[in-house]
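Sequence, please.
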């Protein structure tokens, strides 16, 4: 019976660590790099994976909202030939979204690692 708390601890630790590990093929971009890419939108899709109420409170112009909680069911809305640029509030959910997208075969995925909270430009509502 003494091994059960240890097992629970190990599972929780694995869960936390796995969420923080880098995603294979995910590139981190600076705010300047994203601003430059936004001028070439025909080959890129900009996706904010925060929930609808967060997005409505202020988002980066040009990013469409597909919440992480809906991403798998809305995958058909995303063009696999485009480079995807993801953001969220702090970078955690965009990393999780990248994992989901990789499992669905998307290859070219980038993120703003600081999320919207690190964006110094104007946010739109």
């Amino acid at each position: 019976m003494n091994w059960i708390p240890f097992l629970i601890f190990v599972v929780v630790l694995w869960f936390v660590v796995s969420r923080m590990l880098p995603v294979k093929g995910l590139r981190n971009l600076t705010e300047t790099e994203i601003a430059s890419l936004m001028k070439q939108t025909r080959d890129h899709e900009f996706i904010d994976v925060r929930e609808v109420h967060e997005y409505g409170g202020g988002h980066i112009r040009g990013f469409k909202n597909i919440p992480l909680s809906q991403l798998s069911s809305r995958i058909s809305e995303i063009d696999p030939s485009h480079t995807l640029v993801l953001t969220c509030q702090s970078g955690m959910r965009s990393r999780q979204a990248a994992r989901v997208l990789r499992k669905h075969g998307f290859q070219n995925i980038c993120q703003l690692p600081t999320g919207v909270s690190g964006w110094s430009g104007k946010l739109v509502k």
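The two ends are 54 Å apart (CA to CA).
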